[in-house]
Every structure is written in C-alpha cells, then in structure tokens.
Amino acid sequence: MQPSSRIRAILGGGASGWEVVHRARKMQRQGVRIIDLTVGQHEDPTPAPILEAMHASAMGGNTRYSDVAGSSELRAAIAERAAARTGAPAGPENVVVTAGGQAALLHAFMATLDAGDAAVMIDPYYVTYPGTIRATGGVPRITPARAEAGFQPDLDALEAACAGARVLLVNSPNNPAGAIYSDETLDGVAEICRRHDLWLISDEVYDGMAWDQPHRSPRALPGMAERTVVIGSLSKSHGMTGSRIGWTLAPEEISALIATYALNATYGIPGFIQDAGLWALREGEAIEADLAGTFHRRRDIAMRALAGRQAVRLSPPQGAMYVMVDVRATGLSGRDFAERLLEEAHIAVMPGESFGASAAGHLRIALTVADADLATALTRIADLAETLAAERAAAG
Ligand code: PLP
C-alpha cells in the first residue's frame, strides 16, 4: 500500500531558515536569554474581555455543532466590517468563517483552482503560500518584488507571470516586507486580473495595521468585487492567534463552494470561539487600536534605532508587525547573518531567504518584544553589521 503523495507534494522544497528558530529555542531551554524576533505573534495572551466573552458563551451552552459557514450574527458583523474596510458592499452571504486566515487561504484556493492550474504569488511571501496552493493541486508561479522597489511588484513581470494563470494572490499590508501596495500597484493588479480573467485572492489579515496611509483593498476597485476573495482574521488584529478564527469574503457563488468545502473539512468553527470573535468585532475597537498602536510605535522605534547606521538599510516599513532589514553590505546572506547574530548577540531573527529569493540578504524582524528589548536588539544588529562590513572592507 502507498500513502498519498498529495501531502508529501505540499512540502515542495523552498523555504529555509527555521534552523535559526529551532536553535534559538534550544538555547532558551539551556537557560540562555534570547531576544526572539522570529514569530509574528503578540507577546501577551488574548485580551481578557475576549476570553470572558468566550467563557460566558461556552458556559451558556454554546458547545454544540455550530452553523458550518458561521453564525448569522458573526457573518453579518464581518460583512459590515469588510464593507467598511474594503469600500465595497458586502452581506453575510459573502462570508464564511474559517479556522484562521490560514484555513481561509486553503478554502479560497480550493474554490478557485483546479488541479494543474497556476496561482501567481509574489516573492517575498508568507511562508505557507506555496504549500497551500500545492495542497489544492495548484501550481505556485512565483514572481519577484525587488527590495530596491520597496517590495512593490513589477507590474510588467507580474502581468507576464499571469498569462494563462487562474489566480493571483496578493498580500498588503505585507508579511514579511512590511510594505503596503501603492495605488499604482493596486490599480495595476486589478487591471491584470480583469485583462487575464483571474480570481484575485487578497490576503488582508493586517488590514488594521497600515501606518502612513489608510488600508486600501483591491476588492473596492471597478469590476473586482465579483472576482476577489478577501482573506481576513482576528489573529493579529485582536490577539487571537490560538483561537483560530478568520474568514473568506467572496462572491456568493464562491462562498457557497467554500462552505461546501468547510462542511467536509472542519464542520464549522466552535460556537464559543465565534461568540468571542463577535464580541471582539462589536466591542473590541479599543483593543484592536491598542494592539495596532503597539506595532506602530515599535515601527517608529526601529526607524529611530537604525537611522544613520551605515551597514543596515530598512525597507520602508509601512504596515503589519514586521520590518525588513537589508544586511547585504556585510557580504553575508541573511541566513549566515542570522546565525552569527544568534551565536554572538543572542538575538533570533528570520533570514530573509525563508520568504523567497527576493528577500535574500535581509532579516525579517517581528516587532513582538517589549520596546526596550527591541531597541537593544536593533542596536546590536546594526553594530554587528557595521563590524562585518568593516572587516569586509579591510579584507579588500
Ligand atoms: N496571512 C498572512 C500574511 C500571515 O502573516 C498569517 C499569519 O502569520 C496568516 C495569513 C495566517 O494567519 P492566521 O491563520 O493566524 O489567521
């Protein structure tokens, strides 16, 4: 008997860099104090009022099977939020509640790709994208966004990659780059989707974390609501990573397919988690603003800490909970730099290479430690980069 090859095919090859995370964890277990800037997760647990809503719901008996697509109240609240944020009308019939943004991505690809269809994605990218596309039988087709262009995709290269594809996947505010797509990029993306008759999957899980300009969704652009699936989540916005609650916002026909898949995949999300999510959406505005404000403040700390430092360059950090630091002046790869940083300074960061070739020679820094630790870590990163760059210059 042979096990399925489908799951093994998900692995693909590709992303590296988890060695740094594993080594950091091992050092922590041995008692070494590490400043851990690897994983995109708040340092504090889910805010207490959200947990209280969850507790009250569970104790009130909401522990049975739930509506597979999500409760009507939650779908309506998500639609209301999405309409406000994407600028295009939405109703509960457009929403399916999923186990986090990750399951929303899988459901969205399941509903839009057939086996062998190409889905275009932009490098650097969130690590699960290629595997999620492959899990549906789709074929990831990767096109670069260069650091020199602030990690905005080159529209001509993007259009060339989209020829014959079925889906285009974009993510703004972006993990890992911290970039936000410009109006020109978003208009270009929409134009490409219309011209090549593509589904657009727009991952907007960081929609509340746009620092210098309001978030704009490509769903609001002409002709796009009927071809766009927006991916949403309460993981980052409300500190609910462990609750696994997210959604797809899609045309009704696609939502119906997604609900069919959900029926067979999860049979719905726990009712008490949904009620906690409903509370978060209805009453949790201050919580969301507070969490986002923390990352905004830390973005500013990062900019101040690295300003004027010679061997490091910060890509314009415009949103999400990350900054991307260019260490190519040291001559080291992101991975080699990250390894030395861990050994010598006890700071753990993700090598840029983990997110695709376009982020080679960079470090992704999650802004997920206390302000003082972040400032210390960035100073040590800049110090190490300057030492390495000086050694390189001396060696000629
Ligand atoms: N999309 C992006 C860009 C992410 O960074 C993440 C998580 O880090 C997700 C989707 C999945 O988020 P979750 O499944 O926790 O909602």
TrEMBL record:
An example GO BP is: amino acid metabolic process
Q: Which domain of life is it from?
A: Bacteria
Q: What is this protein called?
A: Aminotransferase
Taxonomy of origin reads:
Bacteria, Pseudomonadati, Pseudomonadota, Alphaproteobacteria, Rhodobacterales
Q: Show the catalytic activity.
A: L-aspartate + 2-oxoglutarate = oxaloacetate + L-glutamate
Which species expresses this protein natively? Albimonas pacifica
Q: Which UniProt keywords apply?
A: Aminotransferase, Pyridoxal phosphate, Pyruvate, Transferase
Question: Coiled-coil intervals in this record?
Answer: none
- GO MF, one example: pyridoxal phosphate binding
